[in-house]
Amino acid sequence: MDVISSLLSALSGGEVEILDLTSPLSPATPVLSLPEPFANTIPLSLEKVSDFDADGPFWSWNNIHTGEHTGTHLDAPVHWATGRDGLSVDRIPPSRLVGPAVVIDFTDEVAGDPDFLLGPDHLDARVAENGPLPEGGWLLFRTGWSSRSGDAAAFANADDGGPHTPGVSVAGAEWLAASPISGFGVETVGIDAGQAGGMEPPFPVHHHLLGADKYGLTQLQNLDRLPATGAMLVVSPLPIVGGTGSPARVYALAPRA
């Protein structure tokens, strides 16, 4: 039996399941909010074109209004100044969008400290315990933050000092950029911590990761259903010509627990 037939057989037989890691995309989906004087992207809205009416008696369809970086989305290298000469989302090779998934879980730490930062020591400990990160793989940072996604205020967790959400330290971002992964995925609104604007450089995961021709994934869900290793990730952004990113449907193929 060939490889594809084996996979299809495992799927139909239930040995492998397909897990949707995507947040539902609606007008209520949280979006990143930057302070003045910076401009912000728009949330999703739908504009009816026809709905089985005089404008289209047999069909219903809508125009979509939203930003590239809304909901579960992919950050392409050209999204950031350090990657501005890199790939737009339509030019990312499909082979870079499918690969092994590795989950690193700091749910307990984040429950006690919403500003928790993933650093080199955490990443080195993960490698020592489970082996090196796979070439072309995706490191997924499980924090439990997706449990807040139905409440925009709780998801942002902001006060007068700005948002307080978990992320990665400057040294951790450098570690990720030097690693063999294709990309880094999070449950939060963006790939950087809520307080990352005050770091040096600002937003270090964007700075280092995208500058190293790697990709970011945001607002993932169901990471608790993935094993630490042994799953495969499939990332499906829209191939927007010249796009700096795109909303994406993200799946994982994993052995059934």
UniProtKB/TrEMBL annotation:
The coiled-coil segments of this chain are none
Read off the Pfam families from this record.
Cyclase
Q: Give the domain of life.
A: Bacteria
What name has this protein been given in UniProt?
Cyclase family protein
Q: What is the lineage of its organism?
A: Bacteria, Bacillati, Actinomycetota, Actinomycetes, Streptosporangiales
